[in-house]
């Protein structure tokens, strides 16, 4: 037993060392103009109060604009979506047609989040994006796909369903970019059947962009799969150690399990939290539903978010929370997306 643990520690240490070797230094340049971002995009970023590029953006935007395949690793919240959306939209502005880019993501929530970024960043060029995920009406999605959107943001399962539904339902023959967000999950065995249907429809000369918050050996191995040095992907891995912001206070509250919900309700009813937005994370869908029902019975306005809800119900819950119609969101890990 101790020997297997030692082997596991050695393997983990080797993986960390390999990832550390890829942690290149991003080029200097504190302004977007210095890394090849065009004036119209800079104006859009300024209107969003985004003044300086993050490390992953400084490192990856230029190589993508230069036509390189890219593997990028950075922790959640570091600006990975903009790192690929900005150069894709700039290329699209030069030669607008659909379908120009396909973005694959493992979850519905992340798909909507990415679509929103494309919509906001591409508003000055009239970008048309289409979200193709499960839980929504297939006919409505099929009609949107027929309009040849510039960017398709999809979960693999639903996109495969559309491809199989009828010949020519999804035309990817001229697609310039394939993006896999959360590439560690996209390249796992879970999505192999779907990718085997989708990838053959893409042109061989496309650019492939892989971004992840969890760098794995299998992803890093892709950089050596191409023998031609000119075609090797550009790789940049930021420091991916997890840290919390200085303004966040963290507390552990140890209470007997049979009365923990009583303590939770009491905390939510205190003056300190009454008017504040609160997210309560639960480990199971059933727990999230239980807490939601309990709080509503106590007269506390709240809404739930978990995978057993329909996609429309999830969007409605998020909308209520964002608009502050309700102050409390009870969620499983889908809320982190």
Automatic annotation (TrEMBL):
GO terms for molecular function: ATP binding; hydrolase activity; RNA binding; RNA helicase activity. InterPro entries: DEAD/DEAH_box_helicase_dom, DEAD_box_RNA_helicase, Helicase_ATP-bd, Helicase_C-like, P-loop_NTPase, RNA-helicase_DEAD-box_CS, RNA_helicase_DEAD_Q_motif. Keywords: ATP-binding, Helicase, Hydrolase, Nucleotide-binding, RNA-binding. Residues 247-337 form the Helicase C-terminal domain. Residues 30-58 form the DEAD-box RNA helicase Q domain. A motif (Q motif) lies at residues 30-58. GO terms for cellular component: cytosol. Belongs to the DEAD box helicase family. PANTHER family: ATP-DEPENDENT RNA HELICASE (PTHR47959:SF24), ATP-DEPENDENT RNA HELICASE RHLE-RELATED (PTHR47959). This is Putative RNA helicase. It comes from Rhizopus stolonifer. The lineage of its organism: Eukaryota, Fungi, Fungi incertae sedis, Mucoromycota, Mucoromycotina. The gene is DBP8_1.
